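User: Run a structure prediction on this.
Assistant: Running it now.
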Amino acid sequence: MIIKTLHTSLLFIFLFAGINFLNAQQFRHINVEQGLSSRQTVNVLQDKKEFIWISTRTGVDRFDGKTIKNYTLPITPRDNAPENFYLKLDKDSLIWAYSDIGQIYRFNYQNDQFEVFYNFHRNKYHSELWINASCFDSQNTFWVGTDNGLFFLKNKKLEQFSKYPLKQAFITSLYSISKDSLLCSTFDKIFLYNTEQNVMQDLDINLGDNQRINSLYFNNQTKTIWIGTFSDGVYCYHMDSKEIVDLKKINPNFPKVPIRKFELLNADEILIGSDGMGVYLVDQKSHKIKEVYQEDEDTQFTLNGNGVYDIYKDKENRIWICTYTGGINILDPSALNFKIISHQINNEQSLGNSIVNSVIEDRKGNLWFGTNNGVSLLEKRNKKWQHFFKSSSNQTNVFLDLCEDADGNIWAGSYSIGAYVISPDFKISKHYTHDTDDNQSLGTNYIFEITLDSDKNIWIGGRDGKLCQFNYETKSFIQYNKLNINSIEEINKQELCIGGTQGLYVFDKNTNLLNLISRRYKIYSVYPDKTEYIYYGTRGSGFFRYSRNTKESKGFTVDNGLPSNQIYSIIPDGKYLWLSTENGISRFDTKNESFKNFSTEDGLSDKTFNQSAGFKSKSGEILFGSYHGVTRFYPSDIRTHEKKASIYLEEFGLFNKVVFPNEEGSPLIKSINNTKKMELKHYQHSFFIAYTSISFFNSDEIKYTWKLNGLDENWSSPSFGKSINYTNLSPGDYTLHLKALNYSTDDVLDEKIIEITVQPPFYNTIWAKLLYVLLVILLARWIFIYLQIRIKKKNSEDKINFFTNTAHDIRTPLTLVSAPLNELKMEKGLSEKGKYYLNLSVNNLDKLNALVCQLLDFQKSDLDKSQLVLSKVEMVDLLNRKVLNFKTLAERKNIALSFYSDTKKLEEWIDSSKMDKVIENLLSNAIKYTPNNGTIQVSLLADKKTWSIAVKDSGIGISKKAQRNLFQEYYRGENAINSKVPGTGIGLLLVKNYVALHKGKIQFESEEDKGSEFKIVLKHGKTHFGKGVSYIETKALKEIKVEHMDIDTDPVQKPDSEHKTMSKILIVEDNDELRNYLYTSLSEHYKVFVAENGKVALDEITKVKPDILISDVKMPEMDGITLSNKVRTNFETSHIPVILLSALNEKEDIMKGLQTGVDDYITKPFDILILRTKIDNLIRNRMRAKERFLNASESIAIDTTYANEQDKLFIEKAMQLVGNQMDNPKFAVTDFAQEMGVSKSLLYEKLKALIGQTPNDFVKVIRLKRAVELLQQGKYNINEVATLSGFDDPKYFSTCFKKLYGKTPSKYFDKQ
């Protein structure tokens, strides 16, 4: 579909048939230039919505009074495409269309398209039929007359009329004349068919020989049938009297052409459309032709096309005429009484030129017209035209103004050739021009205005010259001010009002003074009302009223109702002022300051008028000159009609895409025009509505405004736009108001209202809000419970932290107790009683240490800090070993401890350390709370999905009250407390936490005084652990060096006697007693220095330069881990071995310490003998590295046993540097340090610490090892070897060689 706007105004044409054009009826004309799909129009009608529908050769068009919308009908081709499309209205006033080759369409108002209803081509019996006529009966049955009989279409079923001769006759016309009767004609017969009684009657109308009936029309008022023939005129048959009237006999000149259409104009007259001779207006009583309307090529405003195919009268009695070559012609009987005087081509008895610049009436009533090609005169007495100053081929005579002087002469002012005077007898008597050298000549040759004042003087103004006066008495010119003048009007006998390009002036004729009123605007026209006001029209700035009393101006523009801001002429008429503009004529009411506008649709000659081309005759008639002739009218005849318009909503779209009813996702149920309420989803928040107005009277003067209640506070500014757009509407209820307004008066012509609901998303619905309230309540409850838990947990954490900090602090005193006791065990001469007391103390220290470990374990599990480190473990073997470990303890109480497994081997993924504690806790509890001579059975069971460990005892059991709180922290049952067995109340909670970490569950059954059974159930495999766990091989656990207290360790061996100098050890410990104990215990064997924390230790290291660093982990200021990192990452101290001492004995803590690069990690409490052994081992390993360097049998290869990568890279770089300087005997320590990038002192310290050599000795040893390699090759003598090794003195070389290897180079060479 294609929509075209009539950008140019619809033209008016005159019905022409010998009638004087001044009294002709006016037509509007629509053609392809205005948007028709074809100028070959066939059919026209009006639907119930009052749209005008027009069928053409190419499709169907819809007209709303301003815009034309084109519809293309789907075609199923056969041998020939359709010649024409036709339209029909059914009984519901809905539009149908059909093609002459048998395709029938029905218009779908919801989807705004024609849809195929029936297709003759698909009927195998009637596929070649040609449709000639059609009609609907009262039952909405569609009757179709074809070239091969009569058919009717009902319920989409095509049936052939069964009665002869219509069954197979050539049907020429069909007409429904009543509720149950049809007229049907063949070439020579007319039949009346009763649809209810199924009776057909031949009317027996005899038109004579060789007559062919072409069309029928029935007048129900007069009971007459009008019959149009192919070539023999028109007949009128009176059904009551059976009389036939042949119009040719009454009108001998009646044309012999096909008669296609009849339409009643009124009760007395009928219009007859002929194919080739135009339209005839016939009196129904006398049957005489009253008017003939035909096309005249030499006359601009005649019927466009004589091939009339259709005539239609709409609901407002407008007549629409379809012609086959000239589009649509419209006769509006309600059109206003504007008359047009126009130029007719090749007709001297018409206006001389279409462009009229000036109009006047002389004292005899003759009309004078200044045009772009001379001056034309229309004489009143004989209606004859005369023309003056017609231009030659090389000259254009443009006349811009005319004026009659006091003697009846006509002054004609031209553009460029001065002024002419035409005498009362129509002779050219004078020609005045401007002479620059003559002050008494005409003021300018470019004359725009000529005015007669009350003193009979002529005033002339224009361009490129001066204002001048032609004095009536002296018959000479007087020149005044130089001005560009467009308009001159007399205010009174003393003053003139002058408007021009330089503004508005008042000229005093007595004083010759020019008073400027306004320079703001360019003035086209002025009108002083002889009282107070001066009205003036401007170029582009509107219309103004100036008060000479208040000196104030009031302006009016298009915003106030003007059709244009270009005001060319002002003509008074009582309380009205008539204004010609760039866009039609406007009538200004000076009382209420309102405008009434008129356009070409009202009958004006043009919408664009010319400057100062306005005049009012003595009879009161007003004439305005335009670019297409003159519009003339009597104001009293211009009775305005009430403007009608109905808004029609054409399209609805979402996000700039048109949607139709019942489409997927469409909110429309009906067409948008029939929609009163609409619901949009929350994501359909942006929409547009396209609309138009159906109005055939001044449709150009309809503007629109809208407001969306619920969003807009004010109405939109009135505009001519045809769409509404809203985007991003929030959910809610809205009401859209759309109003059509009269452009001139702002009266509301029509209003459309649609209620629109934008549904909220679910999260914003009432149900969602209720859910939110519920969630808020639940969240508040959860937060309350959570805070309670947090507070409770905080209190619990405080308790746990107290216990664990206390336990951590206990380990240092434990070390101070256990270490001396272990040393006492090594002493000889103890009595048996002393040994008993000593062993008793050591055993209870072990128990105390176990309780401390349990507190630390519980802290980690309760705070969810534990992470599983899984390995694959054989469970039968593990449980066997655990049972064996507890066998001795059970035997002390004479408890029978047994183990049972239903499988010989079971490998499962567990965290060994945590599962050890689970099993040990269960076994420990079972032994503690089982009386002497009891039984304990440990079972290992497995099925397809799970495996379990059960510990069943015959102990004191657990009461039902205690069972409810069994896994709560610090809880112990009353019978457990009464048993006087020590405990913390956290063991089972620890078991529960560790089992939960393994994704398992713990079960128990117990009866007081009978015993208990605890069972842990776990799943096979490792997939159920998910993420957040780590895996290691079982054997990897053995590689972590973790030392615990061992009282059976052999005494440490003293360092070899060769270590004459004692090693320096720096001890870093925040506990004074432990620090002093370590100092005392180690001072006998080492040179010991101490520091109270890591920060102090860093300063001491640079001063002491220790051989070994021993540090606690948890310290103030700086902990041991941080200290170790700083030592290892500092090049100056990276060679110092580090041993960490800590009460943190968890595997994670130990791994964290070892990852910093420390040499060993010892947990508290520790055995001092083990610590000394560790120290001596580190010293011994460092000595071995030095010995390997000095060993003659060792090559210069780099040792790989250094503690860290920095030391290794340092020795590697030093060896490579010395090797590069091997043959340079002058290579000194200063050069060595500079090349290494360190100071000489640091070089000395690093080499001394790592390999026990000074820089000089290091270089000497490297060179001597190189000498050994050269001697072994046997290629060089002793002197050459010395030189190649960097010794410039062979004697010194021999001395050094003998000192290192114990023999001279010559003897070594001989031996080789």
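The mean pLDDT is 83.
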